[in-house]
Amino acid sequence: MIFWEIAKRNIRLHFLRSTLAMLGIVIGVVAIASMGILGNSLVATVSDSLSSVGDSVIVTPYTGGGGGFGGGGGSSANLKITDQQFQQIKRAVAPSVAIPVLSTSERMKVGVGGDDIVAAVYGIDPQYVPDLDLKFSSGGLNNGNSGCMVGSEFAKDNNIKVGSRISMGTDGSKGTLRVTGIIEERGMSFDISTDNAILVTESWFDNTYSRSDYDEVVVKVKSGQDTAEVKKIIEKQLNKRDKIVSVMDSKATLATIYETFGAVTTFVTAIGGISMVVAGVSIFNIMMMSVNERIKEIGIMRSIGTQKKEVMKMFIYEAAIIGVIGSVIGGILSLIAGYAISALMLQSTKYLFTVATAISVGEGVGFGIVICLACGLYPAWQAANLNPIDALRHE
Amino acid sequence: MDDQPVMLFRDVTKVYPLPAGDVTALDRISFQVDRGEFISVMGPSGSGKSTLLNMMGCLDVPTSGDIYISGTRIGDMSDVDLTTLRRDRIGFIFQYFNLFPLLNIIENVTFPLMLKTGKGVDPERGKEVLRAVQLDEKLFTHTPTELSGGQQQRVAIARALINNPDILLCDEPTGNLDSKTGAGIMDLMTDLNREGTTIIMVTHDPHIAEYSRRTIRIADGRIVE
């Protein structure tokens, strides 16, 4: 229709100012959509690296509530979970499996003439390896006392293969271990972080460090049992008089992490929203200018038989054209911006082309168009409701 | 319908309420315009001429009294109906031509037709009317600013005629033209009237008023002659 044509031509006539208003919308959409994309990618990245956690409850010695005598390296050596306590936990959580874990860090050397390195060492009874859901990329379970399993990152960094030998302690003072298996990448986890560690048997650990008290107990919660419930049972059993252990529920912690990420995403998107509001104000501004410049024209239109709603339509078209073009350009740019931010901040763009991204871009574009229409509405209404006689007389 | 007057004013009064007191712009005006007439309305400024023009153009409604356009009473019509009436029954010609600068000549001329049909430009009908107002064919796709005053007024007349209105309402149609060009426009209007178009022309120029066949003079909101 002719009003569409007039709206188009008016935008072309005022190309610079229309472009500037469009630019505002572009920035607003990019701000909202790229922040949304970043948030989604962040959550996807974290949840990917946390996915192997499963339902577990981690029991660690209580380290005191900050300050006091709890802190410091000396006293922490005493903070262990005794075998008696472990048995208590084991009974309490059945049928879920309680896995006792020993851990320390140790100086070691790979092969002959390698550099000294320091890595985490876990002592775990091999029978629990399936319960921990450890998978091997090569080799397998270690049953003998002189064998060990290593994490994938550790293996990669030190060029370790199945059969490689690792001298433990300074100058091999704690003996040599043969690698029997390389554990698949597990990512960040709440129970044990194997990627940069080596796993030895509990008995080797006991013999080498003369220790039998545990550093933590990992409870793998069987389906049908609730992690929160298990946590409560353990706390009830062990923390009767004094607080002896800290119990962490992986599920609840995970939920908290997601909640936090969600809140951060919402917050940064809201900041993007502010730029959209500013863009809306500029749209409102140029629409008011457009109406004021054309009062006489509106008067002529009305006097020769143009209905109010047709005048209104003409101005809404104008706002809509700016809104749609600006928002669509913004949508495209936000994909590019999302790609750049993901690549820079997360070192990965594999989470970019997802439904969540499409939703973020859709939201940004939709919000941009809605803002433009909303900001064009009042000027259009004002134009339509001008008194034709006064408008005609306007110079 | 043909025996009805195209315009009938009966005791039309228009009062503007102002803080300093009411101003009576029109005071019990009655007259009638028959089909095919060519009438000029004359009067000094402040006489109520503009108010009368607005009433005749259905841009305003009277405080009291009745106005009929081709038998239709406009007193209590809605804005939508008044707008439709202006579109279909009245052709406006202004002193300053008032073409749309964003549209070319053909689009300007067919604008009221597009309002009526809701469709796009009908170039054939536009050309037909432009030929009737003797505009050079080469100018049809130009924009209004590229035309002279006289040419623009011809386009404005063509626009006013495109929906075959009952009345052509002219507000100082030659007021912004030199006398020679003005005479050309008046000759065109005389031709149109001879072909059957009813014309009401508001002017303060007695030479221009001479082209009409009847003159209504108003002063202080009343018809004096």
Spell out the key features of this protein.
heterodimer, A: about 400 residues, alpha+beta, 2 domains, six-stranded mixed β-barrel, 10 strands, B: about 220 residues, alpha/beta, Rossmann fold, six-stranded mixed β-sheet, four-stranded antiparallel β-sheet
Structure description:
The complex is a heterodimer of chains A (395) and B (225). Chain A is α+β, with helices and mostly antiparallel strands. Chain A folds into two domains: 2-50 and 255-393, no CATH class; 55-249, no CATH class. Chain A is 55% helix and 16% strand. Chain A has helices at residues 2-13, 15-50, 73-76, 83-93, 152-157, 202-209, 227-238, 250-293, 295-303, 308-346, 355-384, 388-393, and strands spanning 56-61, 97-110, 116-123, 136-139, 147-151, 165-168, 176-183, 197-200, 216-220, 245-249. A six-stranded mixed β-barrel of chain A has the order 2-3-8-5-7-6. In chain B, the strands form two sheets. A six-stranded mixed sheet of chain B has the order 6-7-8-3-9-10, with helices on both faces. In chain B, strands 2-1-4-5 form a four-stranded antiparallel sheet, covered by helices on one side. The longest helix of chain B has 16 residues, at 179-194. In chain B, helix 3 (105-117) packs parallel to helix 5 (149-161) and helix 5 packs parallel to helix 6. The model of chain B has no long low-confidence stretch (mean pLDDT 91). The two termini of chain B are 28 Å apart. Chain B is α/β, with parallel strands linked by helices and 225 residues long. Chain B has one domain (7-223): 3-Layer(aba) Sandwich (Rossmann fold), CATH 3.40.50. Helix content of chain B is 33%, strand content 25%.
